[in-house]
Amino acid sequence: MIRRLFWVGVGVTVTVVVVVKGRQMVARYAPQAVVDRAEDLGRDVSRRSGTFLATFRREFATARDAREAELVAALLAEGQTHPDDVRAARDVHPRHAAGQPPVDPEAATRADEDELGYSF
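Above: the chain sequence. Below: its structure as tokens.
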């Protein structure tokens, strides 16, 4: 574990030194117009990647939620209470509202599974 941390530290240090020295070398030898264009390009890439990631996360969350709803609907038996409703009713129970843990956690889990009709 310590050996890995050491090599991670070495990698970070080498990366920082290379980036700093690289910037100094670019500043010393590159024409200002090239440096300005590269900076503009870097900002544009950063903005585009940020927009892409935000859009991806939003669309992924929407698709995930839709698929979860499909799976829950497929797993529920006819007339079975939705798991969210069971959890909400369970959380209102005085034992849970008072913040007291159940006497036997395994028994409480089994009872929850019996109420839900399935478990993951």
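The mean pLDDT is 82.
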